[in-house]
Structure formats: structure tokens, C-alpha cells
Amino acid sequence: MRPLLTACSVEVYKLRRSFVLWGTLLFILFVITLFLGQPDWPSFFERTAFLYASVFGLLGFGLVTSWTFGREYSDRTLKDLLVLPISRGKIAIAKYVAIIFWCFVMMLISFAYALVIGFAIGLPGFSFAIVQHYLFLILIIGALHLLLSAPLALLACISRGYLVPIGFAFTTLMLALVFGPTAIGTYLPWSVPALHLKENGVASFPLAGISYFLVFLIGLAGFIGTVKWLQNREQR
Q1: DSSP secondary structure, 109-126, as one string
Q2: Number of domains into which the chain is organized
Q3: Residue pLDDT, tens place only, 7-34
């Protein structure tokens, strides 16, 4: 357990020092600022939640995941990882832990930022019930996107970089935007976070249990695939 905790702390520190993490956060805060023209708090939070259900989740979390795994190849540091006295499976787990930790930190920071600027311009209709509702909603949407980001780590390992997984993340965003409002969206995992947001209102094509199961299945497959890939690298 101690080697795993050490690896987690190292990966958390490495990601904290990356320009990708803070650049992604600054982009999120900038886009949130652009939507200050909403008439009240519910509309502002609804727009923020939608951004997390689409661009922030698929591209933002996808970029962080792709860079975390892909940089080991682009910076040629993978060979250094392979000689460490720790299993490659634990290294993969540590990287996932760092990604999950910092993505949730980004969500909390951006939500707090939305509260600050909302109060600063005097948005009407504030209530603690609304804050609680949208905070939990954004966290749930973020958790769904973290599952969907797992295959990007595998793609980064297979392609030995981060360009392919980033391209894949952009493609899934386009697919979600095109097919999400249709009946296909129920069975398209990358549409589920945005449709989950719609479930709180009126959804033309409601989600089914299989929708969430597919998201979980993709996340599990991506995680296991990444661990196995790195373990195979250790044996070569």
C-alpha cells in the first residue's frame, strides 16, 4: 500500500506542476465568465452545468487525461518509469487517482468562481437549495466524464503520445452534439452526461439504465486496458 500511496502523491505533484492542468482551469473560468449575461442564478448554473456536460468534460478532462499518460512518451520518460521498484499497474492507478483528484478540484474551484462572480454582478434568484442542486449535478456529470476519459489513457499508451486521444476526445464531442438530441443519444455513452443534465428538466429521449451501464463499461474497459498495456510493457 505504501508504494501505491507514494506513487499517487508523485503523480498528483507532477500534474499540479503541469501547464496543461492550470491552462485547462483558466480556459474553464474564462468560458464561465462569458456566460454572465444570464438573467438569474438558475439560468447561470444551468449554463455552467451544460458546459461541464459537454466541452469542459469531454475536452477539458480528456486533455488532462491524455497529457498525463501521453507525456511519458513525448518526454521520453517512460523508460524511467519502467525501472522503478513498483508495478506498472500501480503506476497506472496512481495516474488515474491524480487525474480524478485534480479534475474534481477544478470543478470545485470553477463552481466557487461562478458563485463569486454571480454575487459580484448581483444575479437575482439565489438560494442554497439551488447551489446544492447544481453542485451535486456538476459533480455527477464530472464523474461520468471521468469514466469516459479512461479510454483516452489507453489510446495515449497505444499511440505513444497525446495527439491521438485528444483527437478522439474532439470526435466524441462532435458525435455527442450531433446525436445527443436524437434517440441514438440514449445509447451513445458520450451523450449521457448532457442527457443526464436534461433529465432534470424535460428530456425528449430519456436515459435508460443501459445508458449509465455503457458509460461504466467504457470506463472499466479503459482502466483495465491501460493497466494491462503497461504491465505488458514491463514484460517486454
Answers
A1: HHHHHHHHHHHHTT-S--
A2: 1
A3: 888 889 888 888 999 999 999 999 999 8
